[in-house]
Design goal:
By secondary structure, the chain is an alpha+beta fold. The chain is built from 1 helix and 14 strands; from the N terminus they run αββββββββββββββ.
Length: 228
């Protein structure tokens, strides 16, 4: 085959170089676009990460009498901090009757309380500066008056932080066991009946109703319902 003229060869090389340059620019544009998308995801993840995550969460509600006039709530939260310089922890509560009677917690000191909508928020001063990776085990307790006087009752748990596991237990008097128990997932608008295994009679005659969830959905509200 005959050799190509020099002017044709030079023109072809220039065209190839132009194509390579355009391809290179397009590649960089694509890369920059990917980095931008990844950056947005990272920033969104950090903004929704919160100050801490809950490794383990358990509430034990004990109804002391068959009229439902007196109850005690005990809560345990194992918390790992996700940021530095944390000096306070926030608890929250809601429900019927007079709640948060004789509120106490350990560690920390409750220093403020305010109501927003149907919730009451309690600000707990840690009395120390916590760093990222530190772990605290909070034990919180309060009494509830006139909170479970109706034929039906419920206890709600709202997932406002990333949680690994939650456990909810309700202890009923010996002579008034729970009936027709079920869980409502409020946001998903789903009702899940609980079987007989969720209800057991303790050696002293009281009744224990329990439910647990691994990796609960963030911002979901799980409502344990019963008749009695």
């Amino acid at each position: 085959m005959a050799d190509l003229p020099n002017n044709y060869t030079n023109s072809g090389l220039a065209l190839i170089q132009s194509w390579l340059s355009i391809a290179s620019e397009l590649s960089w544009i694509k890369t920059i676009g990917q980095i931008w998308v990844m950056g947005r995801k990272l920033l969104h993840g950090l903004s929704s990460e919160g100050m801490y995550e809950v490794l383990d969460y358990e509430t034990v509600l004990e109804i002391k009498d068959k009229q439902g006039k007196n109850a005690v709530l005990k809560k345990h939260e194992k918390v790992r901090y996700l940021q530095n310089n944390i000096i306070a922890f926030q608890d929250q509560a809601w429900g019927d009757g007079k709640s948060l009677v004789n509120y106490r917690c350990k560690p920390g000191l409750p220093v403020d309380r305010y109501r927003c909508g149907y919730k009451t928020y309690i600000l707990i001063s840690l009395r120390k500066v916590k760093c990222k990776g530190n772990v605290d085990n909070f034990n919180i307790e309060w009494s509830i008056k006139q909170g479970f006087i109706d034929r039906t009752g419920f206890w709600a748990t709202e997932i406002s932080h990333n949680m690994k596991n939650i456990t909810v237990k309700v202890i009923f008097p010996k002579n008034r066991p729970p009936q027709n128990v079920f869980i409502v997932e409020r946001n998903r608008q789903r009702t899940l009946p609980l079987g007989e295994a969720a209800r057991v009679q303790l050696p002293d005659g009281r009744w224990l109703l329990s439910w647990e969830k691994h990796q609960p959905r963030l911002y979901e509200q799980y409502i344990l319902n019963w008749e009695w």
